[in-house]
Amino acid sequence: MENTKPIETKTPIETTPNEGKTTAIIAYITIVGLIIAFVLNNDKKDPFAAYHIKQSLGLALTGLALGAIGIIPILGWIVSFLGFFVIVYMWVMSLLNALNNKQKPTPILGKKYEEWFKGI
Q1: pLDDT tens digit string along 28-75?
Q2: What CA–CA distance (Å, rounded) separates 32 from 107?
Q3: 87 domain-assigned
Q4: C-alpha dihedral (32, 36, 42, 45), degrees to nearest 10
Q5: Residue 6 lies in a domain
Q6: 116 and 57 in contact (C-beta within 8 Å)?
């Protein structure tokens, strides 16, 4: 008789739709929320939450880049000032997508965020 061991398979941790939605919403609430959402989703790997975490990461890095541009006198201030309103618009639309269970990219740069952060 053969000595065979049963094949062990890792089963993904089951998540409820509300858990993924909650994690996605948390991702849009400050940088701390983004970090918390990343840690919460690290074990569960909810695809909806992961998508919104990547979009939120893109928004945070875009905001950081605008802040860096704001250091440049006059022209940098103008770009940073106008960019702030664009970032707020993108953030609100992304948050509304998460609240409404939609996996849509952030307006303007969302497709780029998908491309840039596909490995995360």
Answers
A1: 999 999 999 999 999 888 999 999 999 999 999 999 999 999 999 999
A2: 23
A3: yes
A4: -100
A5: no
A6: no
